[in-house]
Amino acid sequence: MPLTRGKGRTNKSKRTSNPSGDELLQSGNEGSDKRRLMDSSDSSTSDSGSDFSSEKEKRNKKKRKNKNKETPAKFGKRVHSPEDVVHRHRVVLKEFWRTRSISLSCESLSVDKNTITLTAIIAEVLIVAEGEDFRHPPEFTEEDTVGNYAKTCKTFLEGNKPLEEKIKQLKTSLSCYP
């Protein structure tokens, strides 16, 4: 269709019939609603697509918070012998006297609480039997693990009633002992 400068020519050529006013309102409303719906859906998809791509370009990576480690772990090491178990037990007890909580003391020393409870029998037997005339505790061999040695210490303690009584007495007399 050729472009013309006159305003009236293009409009008159497109309109063939003149609808009445009511028909014009009804058809005009429906058409405008459709246009609005189409425009809103079209514009939202086209706008959001362009916004999305521009957001990707503008958006920086989220910075993650780094945990501040004030001091490195003081103590949490793997133990290989009963002497290491006794040393760790004494360190945890010293921290327990300060904090009054086994959980806090284990956490501050980077030691697992369950490990302390499982190996406490070794420390108790070796500490109490150290200076007394009880039977000698079982020997620790290099093939033996600390967990297995804890089990043998438990059976040794069950068979040695005076040593068991002494440990119970120390636990009750020391109010700081957990």
Mean pLDDT figure:
74
Helix content: 55-70%
Uncertain ranges: none
The tally of strands reads 0
| Biggest beta sheet summary | none
Determine the strand fraction and express it as a percent band. under 5%
End-to-end CA span: 98 Å
- Radius of gyration, whole Å: 42 Å
Shape: elongated
N-to-C order of helices and strands: HHHHHHH
Structural class by SSE content: mainly alpha
Helices, by number, come to 7
Q: What can you tell me about this protein's structure?
A:
This protein is mainly α and 178 residues long. The chain has a domain of 92 residues. It is 65% helix and 0% strand. It has seven helices and no strands. The chain is elongated. It starts with 6 loop residues before the first helix and ends in a 5-residue tail after the last helix. The model has no long low-confidence stretch (mean pLDDT 74). It holds the Pfam family CCDC106.
Strand and helix map with partners:
Blueprint: H1 7-14, H2 21-58, H3 82-99, H4 102-108, H5 113-129, H6 146-159, H7 161-173
Output the keywords:
178 residues, mainly alpha, 0% strand, elongated, CCDC106
Structure summary:
Residues 40-52 have a biased composition (Low complexity). With 178 residues, the chain is mostly helical.
